[in-house]
Amino acid sequence: MEVKVMKNILGENDKFAEENRKIFAEKNILVMNLMGSPGSGKTSLLEKILQKISSEFKTAVIEGDLFTAKDAQRIENLSVEVVQINTSGGCHLDAQMIKRAAESLNLDELNFLIIENVGNLVCPAEFDLGENFKTAVLSITEGDDKPLKYPLIFKESEVVILNKIDLIPFTNFNLKNAREDLTTIHPNIKIFETSCTKGDGMESFCEFLRTRLISKEIAL
Amino acid sequence: MEVKVMKNILGENDKFAEENRKIFAEKNILVMNLMGSPGSGKTSLLEKILQKISSEFKTAVIEGDLFTAKDAQRIENLSVEVVQINTSGGCHLDAQMIKRAAESLNLDELNFLIIENVGNLVCPAEFDLGENFKTAVLSITEGDDKPLKYPLIFKESEVVILNKIDLIPFTNFNLKNAREDLTTIHPNIKIFETSCTKGDGMESFCEFLRTRLISKEIAL
Predict the structure, then answer these.
(1) Which of A47, A107, B164, B211 to pair with B59, CA 20 to 30 A apart?
(2) B chain contacts of residue A70, beta-carbon cutoff 8 Å
(3) What is the ipTM of this complex?
(4) What pTM was estimated for this model as a whole?
(5) Alpha helices by DSSP H, chain A
(6) What angle is formed at CA A193 by the lines to CA A190 and CA A198, rounded to 5 degrees?
(7) Are B120 and A119 an interchain contact pair (Cβ–Cβ within 8 Å)?
């Protein structure tokens, strides 16, 4: 009974996701769905990405949070267009929310849209938003057992960012084990190691984004 | 429409939660529902608690995870009775799962039951399991903005544990702000500061648990 309800909700979601994907393709906009646990560093990564990318490619952000506009304010401080979605307690973004939020953006001018999902390593992975690819953020302070415990999000993501690598010396995180488990779950997953506070790995990840953006022939 | 479905599921859950609560009260078992993000340190806290408490009070653990029995194995290593629930991707434990898991425990001999919920700062807070009280774990590496962004879990919890305080020097976590926000959301919330790696704060939290256990007159 519960499963049936879930399928109906997902069926409805997939219809809106396909509509979004069609619109984004027509406008030649690359869309990344950024997911991860609360406090994994999604907004800090976003700030670093925008500092490097937004002068090269016209970029906008959709911020998903249960409550508050704290993250949207951080993005706005970088003079980047941002729309805040508050889910009022909801545990994930869905495609209909993205459709409404995108309507308030000037899509004709846009090259790159980043969607920061609600902080949650479980539910967001189940909902297609019409994005081109998903990126999962796992901070090393969460522990190297997380890929096997939460496999779906890593199966669904083209990219995983291992963030806060500057804190490895203060934890028992085993980078080799984490990489092996991620590759077992998703053989072709691209793994980046970053530190937002130290700046490590950001250029490498932004180079990956540039390649994706240029391959869509949407460079300014 | 979605809201209606949600209410039906919650109504069904509340029925099982009341049944659980009645059984636990009859058997004079104190039940704590331990919640928090992936990697906030729930299992590590549990290990420390069990080392201090399980020789004084007969304790058992129900472990909730999407997949794997990694956490249950850690608890079993401490010679504590443990039941693993795998939700197969489900984002929270519900009262019916607890009812089934509890049936495999010897409740007549038990004083204290700890339920470690699925790692998720959102969904578990919505589901009453029939526990006596909820404890939310927030690791300081998640950031001091989390109480206002995820208020429900802190509203529902009698206790919050600020874990990994040994990492404060390496982050921008503001303890004063976090405490103020938690108290705004839930004026009577009890706040403990802990470090599982250094042992800070564990005795203070265990003393709180002892008081709760003794006030139920279930000391051995």
Answers:
(1) B164
(2) 145, 148-149
(3) 0.88
(4) 0.92
(5) 2-26, 42-53, 70-76, 95-103, 146-149, 151-156, 175-185, 202-215
(6) 150
(7) no
